[in-house]
Amino acid sequence: MKIIIPAAGVGTRLRPHTYSEPKALLNAAGKPILGHILDNLVPLKPTEVIFVIGFLGQKIIDFVKKNYKFKTNFVEQKKLLGLGHAIYLTRELITEEPVLIILGDTIIDSDLRFIRKSKNNLLGTCEVEDPRRFGIAEVENGWVKKLTEKPKNPKGNLALVGAYYIKDTNLFTQCLKETVEKGLKTKGEYQLTDVLQKMIQKKAKFKTFKVQSWYDCGKIETLLETNRNLLMRKTVSLNKKSRGSLILPPVFISPKAKVENSVVGPFATIADKARVKNSVIFDSIVNENSKVLHTILNSQVVRKKAKINENNWHFESLS
Known about the structure:
Layout: E1 2-7, E2 27-28, E3 31-32, H1 33-41, E4 48-53, H2 57-67, E5 72-76, H3 83-88, E6 99-102, E7 106-109, E8 121-127, E9 135-140, E10 143-149, E11 158-166, H4 169-181, H5 192-201, E12 206-210, E13 213-216, H6 220-231, E14 246-247, E15 251-253, E16 258-260, E17 263-264, E18 268-270, E19 275-277, E20 280-282, E21 284-286, E22 291-293, E23 296-298, E24 301-302, E25 306-309, E26 312-315
Parallel strand pairs: 1-4, 1-6, 4-5, 8-12, 14-17, 15-18, 16-19, 17-20, 18-21, 19-22, 20-23, 21-24, 22-25
Antiparallel strand pairs: 2-3, 6-11, 7-13, 8-11, 9-10, 25-26
């Protein structure tokens, strides 16, 4: 099985953090988003992992090669023309073996090893409150009848959550080519949902599988929500650099961080080489090589190499 991870988005809703860091490498609960995704995929033992990269893509290449032993391939998406287009760019790397597509900004909290035994195309789904924001699957007698991208009048609330397992790879690449090369756009982009719907129209069969939990990291508020959810599954490990401080779990404090005379938590992440002194931090993420001094932080994300002192935010090199 091959795995494709599209991670070319510039993350406009996460600025200013994504001016200097790819969205997929932003921290949540002590680990980059992409790290959570890839750790969950290691047990699948893929033959190859293909990444679609764009802005600051070299940082993704460096992170993957440093931390994982997958056979990898990196494809650049120079123009952001939609998820369908991103996967279209990988078409020459898709063979007859099954393909699993996992979005690079969504963490799926499910054991996916079962899919290796599936004889069917599969779509990960979850019931949502506002189906107008997602691709929606209509299911009849256990089979997907129709897929619609962000419908104005949705028929059902079963949302696609960013996990697509394709067995019919020949038909898949055929439908990719038809969609992109004929200019078939929805809402100005080439949608993967439309490619899959074209497969269904050509008699491909899809089943759904329920994803227990999935975490969207596309906006500051959802990134913080993801941080909270992931931290609730962790236990705090206190170290010598946290002495003199009050730690209120759940938190993540890197062994390489330094915390002095502060209150940290609940739901706080303090990343590598960050320094916190005389501060109160909760429901926030302090990224690598940052300083937070004499400050109260609530529901904030502190970018890498930032310095916050008495509520005056600015960016400076701390090297």
